[in-house]
Amino acid sequence: MPDVKHFDSAEALTAVELLFWRKGAASTGIQDIVTATGLSRSSLYNAFGGKDGLYLTALQRYLDERSRPMFARLGADQRGLPAVTAFFDRLIRLRCGGDFARWGCFVTNAHADGPSEAAQAVIDQHHDSLHAAFLAALEVAEGKNQLRPGTGLAGSAEMLTLLAYAINLRSRAGTPRETLRAGATAAVDSLGR
Known about the structure:
There is one protein chain. The protein is an all-alpha fold and 193 residues long. The protein has a domain at 62-191: Tetracycline Repressor, domain 2 (Orthogonal Bundle). It is 73% helix and 0% strand. It has nine helices and no strands. The longest helix has 27 residues, at 117-143.
């Protein structure tokens, strides 16, 4: 009878998510994954179908467990532009301090990994969810008469979405918190009355 290995798949996925987030798919080898998880290659392949399957699972997990809660909070916040400012303040705080400072965003980093079609679909989900959250906040802002006249909501939501990606990338490169905050403040102020 074959030796059956039992392991906590959630714990293994956490280790792999952090590994891919920090190093990226291209720079992460299967031996890195074995070392990070403590699992054998055969256990990894049997449970997750190899590096590509594991990467996709980790990327989707990051979106579902880290990104979507932030987006949901923004989309449900009824303050309008102050909600957008609060989102950027939190994003900058997360990207510039704590355990994951200078890691950027796993999904943002995935853009540079030459993503597979399946990974691109997760990246697109991330973008669409973030855009929808900003759009919801801007609709509230419009209802509260906080926006300058003629502000295009969809285009402004896209601008803010792209700014979030830029903050993720620039924080990874070590851009100071104050610089990132100044850029976010200028963008939000450009929308207000």
